[in-house]
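**User:** Once you have settled down, spend some time on the protein underneath, comparing sequence with structure tokens, and judge whether sequence predicts the tokens.
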Amino acid sequence: MGIIDKMKGGKPSVVGGSTYQWEDKGEDVIWKIPKNIVWNDNIVVKEDEYAIFFRDGKALTVFDRPGRYALTTQNIMTWKLADKFQDLTGIRQIGEIYYLQRREMRGKFGTKEPIAFRDSDFGMVRIRVFGQYSYKVKDPLLFITQFIGTESKETTGQIVDWFRDQIVMSLNDILGELKRDKNMAIIDVPAYLEEMEQILLARIKDDTERYGVEISKITGLNFNLPEKVQEAIDKRGELQALGVNYMQYQAGQAMVKAAENEGAGGNMAGMGVGLGAGLGMGYGMTGAVGAGMDPNAQNPWGSQQPGVAAGKKCPKCGTDVPATAKFCNICGENLSGEKLCIKCGQPVAQGTKFCSNCGSKQTMECPSCKQELSSGAKFCPNCGFKMG
């Protein structure tokens, strides 16, 4: 930012006028000439900026075309003859000049304090939100009147802080509405980021237009969860991959640590009894922990991992499947031992001819000898006719 005093060449004008211009603008949206303006001072306005004459708490004139302007009654119609004589004698300084950038500006926003969010899975969670926005001064006269005259904000930092507060306040409302209307959970937030950006852009537009500003883009929304909540989400994904619940996982981890910690057999055995009671495993867990402490002892689980249900093999393809599996995940073989309806898949009693759920017939008839066959038969046991 710079001031060219007493015109170029160091010679004052007839009435002692000075020349001012805005240099090194950077990312500042507003700059005020650091001293008052007197009659016949000169200002230089460039193509990418506005200059606004401000006096007695009011924005009076906007210079929106590039060029050099001598501030006289030709440009500032509110100056009167009395003003001129007083200014020539140095008795009174009479005005201020504010510069504004015309180009699109970019800024970042974030929550100063975490936002409280009531999540259905993790309870009350405090989250931080960050993002970026683009804005542009559309009405310089309104901008100066509102921010300088009404809000008393004269620096870029104060104005940017105001933008951030408005964005975060609107975003807080949007989170509450999505929670209420769509039951959005914390782990669902990534799926709603684009929708939140669009809603936020439309809502903040109404708040900023009355200040002569247009926010044209909201991007890069990023939600930061507390470290403990993030660890809980990671742990939940790990347990689902293992096919165990939290108590089974903790029990297995306790056994592994007991086996690795020599000299702690008695304590861990006692803890094994407590865990075993809670999980319905009884004293078997205590014996397992003791066996884990002895490297020469036979593994009480065989090849089964602690805390994981014993598996079984599919009788059709031989694939290892969990003990609780009802169907083979390779060949689709029914492993439950129940007879299922050939149409709707609901369990039906052995010997049932019609499904009680959908009414479908559960038997087939040989087209050759009319012998009644069970569903899925490939050959007629009476005449040997090949089915299908």
